[in-house]
Amino acid sequence: MKKLFFVLLALSLFSGEGWAASLDEEYKLKQLCENDAQEIFGRETRRMKLDHYKLSYISHYNKSLKTCFMIIQISTDLNLLDLPVIETLSYDFFDVEENAKVGSFFMQLDRKSGKKTLFFCHFSGQECHSLPEWQKLIKLYMEE
User: Fold this and answer.
1) What does the mean pLDDT of the chain come to?
2) φ and ψ of 53, to 5 deg
3) What is the value of pTM for the model shown?
């Protein structure tokens, strides 16, 4: 009798409208996250000249934290006259729902010499010292 009760309970929880409603709710939250992230991306990159920058972003609704996060990536590839080819890479991490920047990473690469210069790397009040370290700090928020 107990087995039958648990089977019926499981079926009622994971089938029909309950399951579909949760999938529908999750889809709506992801869409809302994407829309809000797109708005922040537009605001943050509006004044940048596209011929100097490569701009992109990725948004993620984290189900376990019930929050939307995003990363804006800005990179440049400047080949200026006799100056060495300089490439820059920048990431800004946002809590979209709070409309707040949580962390930033910025480095420069001189492709002639191979020299990398890290200008800043921080996340939620914590300093970091490399791109892999930055990626490790944000991983919890951008993955389930």
Assistant:
1) 82
2) -130, 150
3) 0.77
